[in-house]
Amino acid sequence: MATFASSVIHQLAYPSLLLIISILALAAFRRLNRKRVTAAMPPGTLGLPFVGETLRLIKAYRTEDPEPFADERMRRHGGRLFTTHLFGERTVFSADPEFNRVVLGGEGRIFEGSYPSSMSTLLGRHSLVLMKGALHKRMHSLTLTRFASPAVIRSHLLPDIDRVVRRNLRSWPASLRLLDQAKKITFELTVEQLISQGPGEWTENLRHYYNFLIDGFFSVPLPSFLSFTTYGRAIKARKKVAEALMELVRRRKEEKMGESVVESAAEAERSKKKDMVDELLVAEEGFTEEEMVDFLLALFVAGHETTPTIMTLAAKFLADNPSALVLLKKEQNEIRRKKTDEFEALDWKDYKSMPFTQCVINETLRFANIIGGVFRRAIADVHFKGYTIPKGCKVFASFRAVHLDSHYYEEARTFNPWRWLNHNNNVSKDGGQEAGGAPIFTPFGGGQRLCPGYELGRVEISVFLHYLVTCFSWEVAEKDKLVFFPTTRMLKGYPIHVRRHHSL
Ligand code: HEM
Question: Measuring CA to CA, which residue among 198, 180, 178 is closest to residue 189?
Answer without folding.
Answer: 198
